[in-house]
Amino acid sequence: MATSLDITVYRPASHSALAEQDLIAAHAVIAEIDRMMSLYRPDSELVLLNAKAGQGPVSVSAPMFEVLQAANSFARRSGGAFDVTVTPLVELWGFYRNDRVVVPPQDAIEEARRRVGMDRLTIDAAARAVALARETAIDLGAIAKGYAVDRAIAELKARDVPAALVDLGGNIGVLGARPDGNPWKIGLQDPRKNGLIGSVSFNAGAVATSGDYDRYFEHDGQRYSHIIDPRTGWPVSGVAATTVIAPTAMAADALSTAGFVLGPEAGLALIASIPGAAGLVVGTDGRVAVQGTGGVTFELR
Ligand code: AMP
Ligand code: MG
Fold it and tell me: Which domains does the chain possess?
C-alpha cells in the first residue's frame, strides 16, 4: 500500500513470544489485503478487475465485495464527493507516478471526468459480482487501508489480544482499553510544519487523516494535491487536512477523504450524520472546524 505500518500489541510480559506471533498474524492479514487491493501490483485482484472493464460482470472475493459495497454507500452519502471510480482523474493529474508539473488541459479533464462516476460500477449482491463500464477503473486508495486495519484488529481480537493499536499510514484502529487506564490519544499533525496542532482522545474505534501534504505538486504558487473532487475533475483546494474518528477504520478512512472533498461545512455535516463519528477539517488558511461526539475529546493548541 506504499505506506508505513506500525502494530503495537499489549500482552503481559510473560507472554512476549505470543505477542510476537500476534504481530506476525496481523501483518499477514494486511499483506493479504494489499495483494488484493493494490493498484501497484500487476496481479492484484483489483488490477485484474479493472482490466475487465466493459466486459460484463466479474465475480469478486468477499473482501473486495465488502469494500466495494461500502464505497458505494459512502459515495451515495457524500453526494459523489467520495468516488472510487476517480482513477482516470488521478492518472491524468499524475498522482500514480507523481510525474506532473503543470495543470492538464481542461478538455483532457473533461474527457477523464466522463469516465468517472459510481453509475459506471454495477454491483450484484446475489452473485457477488461487479461490472465496470468501459474505460472505467477503480482506485481503493481512500478506503482499503482502513479496511485492512479493521481486518488486522479483528485478527488480534480473535487471538484474544487484550489491547492493541494498528497504524497503517495514518489509519489507526485500536482494540480494547489502554493498559494504563487512559483513553487512546493520537497527535494531530500540523499540515504545514513539523509538530502537532493538537490531539484527539477516544476509548474505542478508529481514526484516519487525509492531507494535502502526502502527495502534491506545485505550479505557479498553487498546490495541487492527490485528493480530487470528482464533480469538477480538479484537485480539492482550500482544505489542508481532515481527521475522522469512527467506529471502524474503513468508515474513518472513507469519511476523512469525503470530508476533505466536501470541506468544513458539508464535510462535518456528513460526519455528524454517522453515529459515533467525529472529526475536524483544517483549512489551508489554518482555520480548524470541529464536529464532536460522545467519548471523543479534541485538544487544540
Ligand atoms: P486518502 O489518503 O484516504 O484520503 O485517499 C486518497 C487517495 O484516494 C488518493 O491518493 C487517490 O488515489 C484516491 N482518491 C482521490 N480522490 C478521491 C475521491 N474523491 N474519492 C475517492 N478516492 C479518491
Ligand atoms: Mg481515506
Answer: 45-132 (1.10.3980.10), 144-300 (3.10.520.10)
Ligand 1, residue 145: give the atom nearest the CA. Answer: 3
212 lines ligand 1 (CB under 6 A): no
DSSP, res 204: S
The pTM of the whole model exceeds 0.90: yes
**Rounded to whole angstroms, how far apart are CA atoms 171 and 110?**
32
Residue 142 CB neighbours (<10 A): 26
DSSP codes, 151-189: HHHHHHHHTT-SEEEEEETTEEEEES--TTSSPEEEEEE
User: Is any ligand 1 atom within 6 A of the Cβ of residue 291?
Assistant: no
- Under a CB-based contact definition with an 8 Å cutoff, are residues 266 and 158 in contact? no
Distance from the CA of 93 to the center of ligand 1, in angstroms?
Answer: 12
Asked if residues 235 and 229 have their Cβ atoms less than 8 Å apart, the reply is yes
Kindly tell me the burial class for residue 77, based on how many C-beta atoms sit within 10 Å of its own C-beta (0-12, 13-18, 19 or more): middle
pLDDT average per 10 residues of sequence, the chain (301 residues): 92 96 98 97 98 98 98 98 98 93 95 98 98 98 98 98 97 97 97 96 98 93 96 98 98 98 98 98 98 97 92
| Dist. CA 174–CA 25, nearest whole Å | 16
Ligand 1 centre and the CA of 300: distance in Å? 26
Q: State the Cα–Cα distance between residues 49 and 57, nearest whole angstrom.
A: 10
The cell 467520495 sits on which residue? 82
- What is the C-alpha to C-alpha distance for residues 203 and 181, in angstroms, rounded to an integer? 10
Distance 11 CA to ligand 2 centre (A): 30
Q: Which amino acid is at 244?
A: V
Indicate the residue type of 258. Answer: A
